[in-house]
Amino acid sequence: MIDQARPIVLLLARIAIGVIFIVHGYQKFATMGIAGTTKFFESVGIPLAGVAAPAVATLEVVGGLALIAGAALPIVGSLLALNMLGAIVFVHGANGFGAGEGGYEFVLALAAASLAIGFSGGGAFALDRVLGRRGGAATVTA
Asked: According to its UniProt record, where is this protein mainly located (predicted)?
């Protein structure tokens, strides 16, 4: 039963986490705008804010799409997790744990989910699997 559900569960997880990243990246482009995102990044001390703002927005949109498609999962999952680590360090960490107070709880969950999905192999419905790139799901024999 678990083996039968695994591909569907991984697909649903990829869709859910991917959509969250796409929406947040889209907000940086459309709602805040890159200029507004750059100003915010500068205000919280992110180095090279003018480069970081469009890079982060692009990573979140493209990375979210890649998660949904199941493409380049180990790379994308790692990059998105590093992105969330940056959000913890520069924005959420000083606010404590609780998301309600602007803390790092939600961002940490996104980082963990990105890594878990990135190194899960993506499941049967992942583009990596269809193309024969197993990406992350490794079997170790002793």
From this structure: membrane
